[in-house]
Write a structure and sequence with these properties.
Layout lengths: L1 E10 L3 H17 L4 E6 L11 H4 L6 E10 L2 H13 L18 E6 L5
Length: about 120
Amino acid sequence: MYVDGFVLPVPKDNIDAYKALATVASQVWMEHGALSYVECVADDVTYGEVTSFPRSVLAKDDEIVILAWITYPSREVRDACNAKVMADPRMQCDPGSAPFDTKRMFFGGFTALVVA
């Protein structure tokens, strides 16, 4: 199994717009080969002294942290899926119109170590 994970801050006033975007994104990823697509809203995280989810994205008081992941059977499937997603017209948008600060989002790919 292969996993893409990402964390980002979303202004609380934009959570409905973000949910609409994430709903379309979930459909696109699933159509192009993802096994699962999950987006979660933080409701029990604190701003840590050294590190934390809010600190990782420099979350402001009026923002909420999103933790999300997408699973695939393999990295090869993930790479092919992501290429199709990026070419899909439903995912074409101006980064300046996103309902969150794209510069503070971070993401990466991971090989599963334990799956239960």
